[in-house]
């Protein structure tokens, strides 16, 4: 796991050495173990290394192919690299890691090589013969990759901060991305808050030469590499278990100890249970606990730890610790997010305990129907034929609804929809700020293009999937990719922790997405996953209320963080995209306990002002 950067001078010359040094220098946290640069002609490549596999210097980058044609910088882990290595019989390998395997695979098969790998990755390859730069990102967008063109120079990096380090001067806000941030609490699509900086789409490759830039999709979630036939429920459960078990086994490949997050929920408990099965060593598990009972899940985590005989670590965190780390967490946001602080606190706590790699249970909710709206959408879809004819009645009901708060605004939008398709309904289910709040607080056009809705509308194969899987696909292309995975990466890498997510194994996902709804319909959350694990999970874990990892933000904003938030509100009120008076009134009403104003809506304003101020954006 690392940080990568590079520049390509499309015309003329520049001081590439100084520039690439600034880019890698801004990402020390992503790779504190080693730094490397390669500069030749119009290209400079840079790398920061967090040593996980092959701890020797033979794993340092940038990396050159044996034939001398290619130079590469790579961020990620390729869990099946040893299998691919066996297919490259005409090369004597000098290292024991995955970087050299990827380099030699690329030198033989170019873009076709990526289909052979299972893992998370983002990398850049310079082809000296063709004078072409290739940028490639993994299937699901686990690892980030950003790029921009400034005049005659093309730049790329693992972080926006790295690009900004190489591009001093005025930074213009992208209002299209800003609208997406307020709508979804993070920036959706391939735009970023900074105008001109884009994110490479998941499952895509960008080919850059002096003549052209070409985006090449190489994986599509709606076009699985293998078509499955389904027999009995027992056979489906066995296959799910085998695929998840294999995904976990592969993610234990490491030359440093691998731990696991253990919240005591279904997903993390499933990971630990199968980890105990496949590992030859006693699992190291970590739980973040609190003195306040309403936020503490440590008892459930300890139950799982005892059952699977893990070396369990309960890390008690007091509110003071979280508040003391608020500013470092905000500073760690490479891209603004309303939901990233939790990830930072968990990652830092585990990294401080001495762990460099940890397995996480994120992704289970999205794949196995862990959120309430899976069942809600299934019921709504059953009304499909009645929806058009009920439009007059729905419009009448909507007319009596005030849009004074977000929940009523969302219901009003839902009643006015023309159909109940995923592209229409999913954005409403996931939005934080609706049109009414846009009009009230922001000088931004609420009707700007919604990149998530646009992406879903363009998926011709979406309707061929079962209903539950359609919701999962929307999750992968929406909240999961632009909030969950982005927060996990930026917050864990800020403290030099590598997080591995077995539920994001693409073979597991491709299989489960094809499973018919008859195997998935829920009597309780994630029923297919639980049934696939048999008796592994204690019933107390399976049937307890879903809690989630939350902090008492509403209380803190009104008390401990009040002065900090007041400063941010005052600062934000000076910005042109904000309607100052309505925002100030909302802040005052919130402090006085108005239930119609949610803390998350206030927090989005706090975070974005801090981020824009820190990055000197106007």
Description:
By secondary structure, this protein is an alpha+beta fold. A hairpin with a 5-residue loop joins strand 4 and strand 5.
Features:
618 residues, alpha+beta, six-stranded antiparallel β-sheet
What is the topological layout?
Elements: E1 2-9, H1 16-25, E2 34-40, E3 43-49, E4 63-64, E5 70-78, H2 81-86, H3 98-109, E6 119-127, E7 132-137, E8 146-150, E9 153-157, H4 160-166, H5 175-184, E10 198-199, E11 204-208, E12 213-217, H6 233-250, E13 258-261, H7 266-278, E14 284-289, H8 298-307, E15 311-316, H9 319-324, H10 326-331, H11 341-352, E16 357-359, H12 364-368, H13 372-381, H14 391-399, H15 406-416, H16 422-430, H17 435-441, H18 451-457, H19 467-477, H20 479-493, E17 498-500, H21 506-514, H22 527-532, H23 539-542, H24 553-558, H25 562-572, H26 580-591, H27 599-614
Parallel strand pairs: 13-14, 13-16, 14-15, 16-17
Antiparallel strand pairs: 1-3, 1-9, 2-3, 4-5, 5-6, 6-7, 7-11, 8-9, 8-10, 11-12
Helix pairs in contact: 1-4, 6-7, 6-21, 11-20, 13-19, 14-15, 16-18, 19-20, 25-26, 25-27
């Amino acid at each position: 796991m690392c940080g990568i950067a590079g520049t390509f001078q499309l015309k003329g010359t520049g001081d590439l050495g100084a520039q690439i040094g600034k880019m890698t220098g801004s990402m020390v946290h992503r790779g504190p173990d080693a730094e490397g640069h390669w500069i030749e002609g119009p290209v400079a490549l840079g790398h920061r290394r967090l040593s996980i596999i092959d701890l020797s210097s033979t794993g340092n980058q940038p990396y050159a192919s044996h034939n001398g044609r290619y130079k590469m910088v790579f961020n990620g882990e390729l869990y099946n690299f040893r299998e691919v290595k066996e297919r490259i019989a005409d090369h004597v390998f000098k290292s024991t890691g995955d970087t050299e395997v990827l380099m030699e695979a690329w030198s033989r098969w170019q873009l076709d090589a990526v289909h052979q790998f299972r893992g998370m990755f983002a990398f850049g390859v310079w082809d000296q013969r063709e004078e072409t730069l290739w940028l490639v990102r993994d299937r699901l967008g686990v690892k980030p990759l950003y790029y921009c063109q400034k005049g005659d120079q093309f730049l790329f990096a693992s972080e926006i901060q790295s690009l900004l380090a190489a591009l001093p001067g005025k930074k213009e806000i992208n209002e299209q991305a800003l609208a997406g941030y307020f709508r979804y609490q993070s920036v959706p699509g391939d735009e970023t808050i900074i105008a001109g900086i884009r994110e490479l789409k998941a499952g895509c490759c960008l080919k850059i030469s002096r003549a052209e830039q070409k985006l090449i999709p190489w994986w599509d979630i709606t076009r699985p590499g293998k078509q499955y036939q389904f027999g009995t429920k027992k056979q489906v459960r066995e296959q799910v278990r085998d695929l998840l078990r294999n995904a976990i086994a592969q993610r234990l490949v490491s030359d440093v100890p691998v731990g696991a997050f253990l919240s005591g929920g279904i997903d993390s408990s499933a990971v630990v249970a199968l980890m105990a099965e496949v590992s030859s060593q006693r699992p190291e598990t970590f739980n973040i606990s609190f003195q306040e009972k309403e936020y503490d899940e440590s008892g459930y985590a300890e139950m799982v730890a005892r059952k699977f005989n893990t070396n369990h670590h309960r890390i008690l965190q007091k509110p003071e610790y979280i508040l003391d780390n608020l500013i470092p967490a905000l500073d760690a946001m490479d891209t603004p997010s309303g939901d990233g602080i939790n990830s930072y606190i968990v990652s830092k706590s585990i990294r401080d305990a001495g762990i460099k790699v940890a397995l996480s249970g994120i992704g289970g909710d999205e794949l196995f129907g862990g959120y309430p709206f899976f069942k809600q959408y299934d019921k709504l879809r059953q009304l499909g034929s009645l929806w058009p004819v009920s439009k007059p009645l729905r419009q009448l009901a909507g007319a009596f609804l005030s849009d004074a708060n977000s929940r009523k605004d969302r219901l009003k939008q839902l009643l006015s929809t023309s159909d109940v398709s995923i592209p229409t309904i999913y954005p409403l289910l996931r939005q934080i700020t609706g049109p009414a709040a846009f009009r009230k607080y922001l000088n931004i056009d609420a009707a700007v293009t919604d990149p998530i809705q646009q992406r879903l509308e363009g998926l011709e194969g979406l309707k061929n999937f079962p209903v539950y899987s359609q919701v999962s696909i929307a999750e992968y292309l929406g909240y999961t990719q632009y909030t969950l995975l982005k927060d996990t990466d930026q917050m864990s890498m800020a403290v030099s922790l590598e997080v591995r997510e077995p539920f994001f194994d693409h073979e597991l996902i491709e299989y489960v997405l094809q499973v018919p709804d008859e195997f998935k319909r829920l009597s309780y959350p994630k029923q297919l996953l639980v049934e696939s694990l048999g008796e592994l999970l204690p019933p107390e874990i399976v049937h307890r209320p879903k809690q989630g990892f939350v902090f008492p933000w509403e209380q803190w904003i009104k008390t401990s963080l009040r002065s900090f938030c007041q400063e941010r509100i005052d600062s934000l009120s000076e910005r042109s995209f904000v309607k100052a008076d309505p925002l100030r009134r909302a802040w005052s009403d919130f402090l006085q306990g108005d239930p119609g104003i949610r803390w998350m809506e206030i927090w989005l304003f706090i975070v974005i002002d801090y981020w824009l101020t820190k990055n000197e954006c106007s």
